[in-house]
Amino acid sequence: MRAAIVVFPGTNRERDAARALARAGATPVMVWHKDTDLPPADLIVLPGGFAFGDYLRTGAIAAHSPVMREVVAAAGRGVLVLGMCNGFQILCEAGLLPGVLMRNTSLKFVCRSVTLEVAATDTPFTRRYTVGQTLDVPVAHGEGNWQGDDATVAALEAGNRIIFRYADARTVNGSLGEIAGSCSVNRRVLGLMPHPENAVDPLTGSTDGAALFQAAVEAA
Amino acid sequence: MDTTRPATARDAAEFGLKPDEWQRIVASLDRVPNLTELGIFSVMWSEHCSYKSSKKHLMGLPTSGPRVIHGPGENAGVVDIGNGDAVVFKIESHNHPSFIEPYQGAATGVGGIMRDVFTMGARPIANLNALRFGDPSHPRTKSLMAGVVAGIGGYGNSFGVPTVGGETQFHRAYNGNILVNAMCVGIARTDRIFTAAASGIGSTVMYLGAKTGRDGIHGATMASAEFTEDADAKRPTVQVGDPFTEKLLLEACLELMATGAIIAIQDMGAAGLTSSSVEMAGKGGLGISLDLSSVPTREAGMTGYEIMLSESQERMLVILKPGREAEAQAIFGKWELDCVAIGTITDTGRIVLHHGGVTVCDLPLEPLIHQAPLYDRPWVPTPPRAVLEAGVQPEPLLASLTKLLSSPDGASKRWIWEQYDHLIGGNTIRRPGGDAAVVRLDDGPKGLAITTDCNPHYCLADPVLGGMQAVAECYRNLSAVGAEPLALTDNLNFGNPERPEIMGQIVGCLQGIGQAALVLGTPIVSGNVSLYNETSGQAILPTPVVGAVGLLPDVAVAGTSALSAPGLTLMLVGKTSGWLGASAYARTILGTEDGAPPPVDPQVELRHGTFVRSLVRDQLIAAAHDLAEGGLLVALAEMCLAGGMGASIALPDGPAHAIAFGEDQGRYLIATAAPDAVIARCNGVPLVRLGTSGGDALTVTGHGSTSVAALRAAHDGWLPAFMDAG
Amino acid sequence: MKAVVIVRLKHGVLDPQGQATGNALRGLGFQGVGEVRQGKRIEIELSGTDKDAARAEVDRMCRTLLANPVVETWSIEIEG
Amino acid sequence: MKAVVIVRLKHGVLDPQGQATGNALRGLGFQGVGEVRQGKRIEIELSGTDKDAARAEVDRMCRTLLANPVVETWSIEIEG
Ligand SMILES: Nc1ncnc2c1ncn2[C@@H]1O[C@H](COP(=O)(O)OP(=O)(O)O)[C@@H](O)[C@H]1O
Ligand SMILES: [Mg+2]
To answer: Which residue lies with its CA nearest to atom 3 of ligand 1?
Structure first.
């Protein structure tokens, strides 16, 4: 299974993503944002970081970079796309997923383990989980506060497209409905704020994120 | 303003040079320098670049050892960790800029120290920060802390290096002068370490990175009336950092280093292009000629003086092998950074600067580098203090425990480190909140343990002992996670060295650091001196922060302070006499900062540390924690909190409050499922059985019990409540 | 020529930053501080001299990059 | 009453945000884009009716919280 990891200037969790994918049996290749010809891939990953400095608005400049046209086209063909943290922000700015990610209500960057509830398992990424299962996965972001208007939320709910919700006692970032991740209508584009790629190794804490990569590898 | 006009004694005074220093410059040149040249002298002869007050005493530090590849004098220290890998690290202060503009001051401090590390060819893998703020009730403390923490996080998080540890303390002595010390640790290959010494007459000097603006052009000139013709054009004293550019600079530099095209490289830190060019040519025993008109600038009309003294961030100077310029330009072009030839290496022994066809500076390097005045400043030793008697216990033991855990210094710093991305890289094996942080090397199983420590109260009471204790506490933190202590870096934060009692603190602390480092086999391989930390005659507490790095052969057996299983035997390693002088208990409960601090015996530290390390490595213990501020009971509570597990103990004999909270040195608390095996190994190391783990409360025989949940509320609650309160 | 773009959050969109600023001002003892909202002001140097053309062009910039139409509105002024 | 505060970076202070935005605009093919600088616009609802008093008060807010005089300048408009 070939996974293409798109690297923008400012991307900084590409190696974490590559390691998680390799552990799950994929062969990750890094793709520099200027290479507008995406190599053939079964899975495209937009990793964490602060593409283009996250200046102006998080994800905004990256979302309008040439490689993203390729990503949008590939998504249209049904290629699996996974955006984690900054990747999720870019997917929202690029219009592949609905809503926006705003400053955390605390106005502070937050890095800690959170309890993540799996809200839907009928995606290629979450098939190995059960609905309602809780995962121990870290977050690390300053702008993970998901917001959308009533119609957007209604559409997500009607389509069972909210995939992860925070299930912590204290709110992580103020997201509407504690939304932590959502998917596209065809369920093949997934974006989430937490970092499952940092939860694949028993020595660093949790391994609850590993099943997400395994499922994606199987599905691709 | 004409920066090529001859300078005067008055200019020299405005640039912060003493009258005798001005005389010395004129004598060494045999002429009067022009204003640009004077500016270059003033920064090269500044305390920051020349170490003129501290050098004499720094010479006494042990700096070499079998593993040391580069000691002090390079951008960062380099230590061999086997298999062709080297650890590269250094700590540096950004105290004053952080007080003026906490976010940018702290952020650029982090940016600067990371550049020091990657300039040597290393990829940064961990950051730490040692912070000191004023009294919590001081009106500026809250906003300074919020800004500093946001700035450290803002830069490190974006750049993509985990910030894994540090320390944070409060005291009124820092009200007008906070301390922000940042440490960076990187990994390089031993056969690909880069230094600053130029070679190759005729080689090209390239300028890399961000453009030069009028940032931070040195303080003394700010006040100069000549610079304020236009109010709106007032030079910004504070540099603004751009982690995005720095991340690109890192990747571009590492890529260029891999090509073998580089002869020497030096970042532009404090004193910017001046110190980088002078040092590169000077270290190589050569000369340098630069055309300042080629330097990429952010604003039009910058003078040579401004270009040389600008402290704009994210810039590097590099000397390339002949004919490799195009290669460098291609790499930097890909990363969208400037890469411009600005001069050549010469054999003249001089620094010659041209600007717009005019020679604006022509100085011999020798006096700039080697003739800075070295001061043997008068100093007086700190008078010894009397031992503080334990007296009667003023309140129940567990009430004091709760107070200590929720005191500003004792409270959890979670509010801080949760704003730092401490997980990026996927190699953080021990997160902040325990003893040393542990970070795995990419391919494992090796890892590094890293910590910073200093107890300024001890340093104030007894500088020699305080210096020793800072090293000893680092040693304990590393040993508690099973790491072999390798080497140290230090950040010497003091007041005005022209005052003999302050100079006495500097001399004493350095003596203590040196003595302990020698016995413990941990040479000092890099460091930074920050003097004149005073406002209106009020000096900070002497704060020689020590940063330490240790090696773990296999991170899978890294120790932990978390008590997470019931039924373990708790044992105390080391002797307890109940020493309360200068302790957290004395400050918080007895209301006194007085008393002599506990003695430190580096030989004892060595023996006890080696013992605990061997227990961790052989997996004979389930948890270990060193005893520091707050003593035995605070350490036990921290272990309970880290693992979410209770414990029951009986205190050794003696006045209960002194035994529970005294800060006798050389001690650890360990938890083991195999107490007999531990005892069998102790070989004379004092060991006392205290009790067992289990339940959901901490119980001290004869003194009652308190739930771990209540302790957690106290420990975790103070800082967020403090910051959130209007 | 210079364009000044003001980007503001749409009415009804939560503004955590403005809220926090308001709280901080009240915390500092400033009286009578009501709602606070924070927006961006972007100055763009432009070559060319045709103001109407510039305005149309800057409007395109806003639509494609400078603002997120899902949550933000913008206004444009062309100077000099 | 409402105060509108514009906070801008002083001339000469690095504006990485503005720089990145300028590069992105040029990258998207917008012609003639020169320097881009980004500032903040803060709207504050105020009770009271004395405009001069309000202006002085908001100036104090800028000095203490809304701006950092070391690197930023500000201007204030009082509306309605
Ligand atoms: N500014 C900070 N940044 C990151 N971690 C911090 C900071 N301040 C404190 N910590 C973390 O909190 C924990 C306790 O610190 P400290 O009280 O100095 O411990 P110790 O006495 O064991 O050295 C450590 O793990 C430390 O890394
Ligand atoms: Mg410590």
So the answer is: B166
